Amino acid sequence: MRKPSIKTITVKILLTVILTAALVMMIIIGLSFRSLSHRLVEDKALAAAELIKAGLTSHMKAGIMDKREYFIQEIRTARNIEKIEIIRSNEVNAQFGKGLALEQNIDETSHKVFNSKKPLFILDEYKLKPKIHALVPYIASTKGRLNCLTCHNVSEGTVLGVVNIEMDVTEYRNTALVILILILCTSAVLVLLIIINTFRTIQTYIKDPLESLVGRAEEAYKKNIPLDTERYRSLEFQNVAKEINLFNSDIIKTQKMLKDKNQELELLNDEIEDTLKETVFTMGVIEEKRSKETNNHTRRVTGYCKLLAEKIGMSKDEIELAGDAAPLHDIGKIGISDYILLKSGKLTSEEFEIMKKHTTMGHDMLKHSKRKILRAAAIIAHQHHERFDGTGYPQGLKGEDIHIYGRIVALADVFDALSSKRAYKEAWTIDEVVTKIKAERGKHFDPSFVDLFIANLDTFVAIKDKFQST
Ligand SMILES: [Fe+2]
Ligand SMILES: [Fe+2]
User: Fold this and answer.
1) Does the reported pTM lie above 0.85?
2) DSSP states of 413-446 as a string?
3) How far is ligand 2, taken at its centre, from the CA of residue 271, in Å?
4) Which of 167, 195, 358, 367 could lock 333 by a disulfide, CB 3.0 to 4.6 Å apart?
5) How far does the centroid of ligand 2 lie from the alpha carbon of residue 401, in Å?
6) In CATH, which superfamily holds the domain spanning 268-466?
7) How many Cβ atoms sit within 10 Å of the Cβ of residue 270?
8) In angstroms, rounded to a whole number, what is the distance separating the alpha carbons of residues 438 and 447?
9) pLDDT tens, position by position, 138-180
10) What end-to-end distance do the CA atoms of the chain give, in Å?
11) Could you say which ligand is closest to the alpha carbon of residue 418?
12) What is 6-177's CATH topology?
């Protein structure tokens, strides 16, 4: 799954925090604003009620109670009050009798105000036209400019009546809503600005430098040029760039050291391989000398084997291996006594049986090695006297059951034996050799190898001439 970017993670966190904070703030502001709005309309209603109370008292004191209706209507119009009702107490009604047309009897709601002696506000705010009902008690008092008790036969603190007014507060509510919407919009714009700014800050100070750092770090490593640490504006990125420079420098040093070591190892390995090849070749020459073989027999057989392997189409490594292992084909002869090995006359059948053992003895000498060259040499020592038709020794292997190295060395060894002078015979001419080898096609030798030999006879002869016996 693809991992989210730093920008996405930060914006998610930021959005969660800001939106939560904004929501909490909005709730607090909304509730406070609602409370303030309520206080405002209550104060307005209270002021109107107080004005009515004062007006009624003044009319009473001035003896113009009959003008009260007119006064109240004027107040209603001036203050945009929808309804004004006066609810007189039983004491007042008992003293003065029923008065105004707009006077009402005490109902359940006004009864509460008579008892509590405190204003009661009922706000009907969720209607299309919100209203406030204010019920304000008129309490008899001797304090202030007006002494109620001069007219009323009641004790101080008695509730003389309740002024009940009903006012439309649509304008207040709408104003409050507009202000609330303005606050919300301003907050939303602020949140948006904070997010955009954070976005840009992350882009400028984190994402861009990070991407640039990754790209430049790779380039710096490839070209071996240190990063310019001054180009980064934040301390953290500057430090990272410095660390990358140190890291790259260490890696490059280590790589160079490993390369040098590797070269040393390759040279050492070549040296070991060359030493082994030379040792194998020398062992072949030692055996060649002891067997009184013609000089350079080993060199020529090596050359023929490589040539034949190449013409067969073997890989470069296989060609090298066949040629390098070939010198040990007769190494088993060091286990054969001089009497038999160096006998100038024809071997008896018993002697020949002993002589044949040089194949298995050579194989036994070499087979335990884990070196490729010696393992190949073991096969060659074992199988170079096998014949393609199965009449060879020591195992009487047939056809391609004989390892390809065995078949190659068989042809190379016989070609050199026939074309070289030996103590008991003269060297055959090339024509005689070719005739003999052709005659052995499919008998002693692999027929396809004989064909390749014939096709490349000149090169075989060139090798023979190059490493002539002396
Ligand atoms: Fe041999
Ligand atoms: Fe040989």
Assistant:
1) no
2) HHHHHHHS-BTTBPPPPHHHHHHHHHHTBTTTB-
3) 28
4) 358
5) 21
6) Hypothetical protein af1432 (1.10.3210.10)
7) 10
8) 9
9) 888 887 666 777 778 888 888 988 988 998 888 888 888 888 8
10) 78
11) 2
12) Beta-Lactamase (3.30.450)
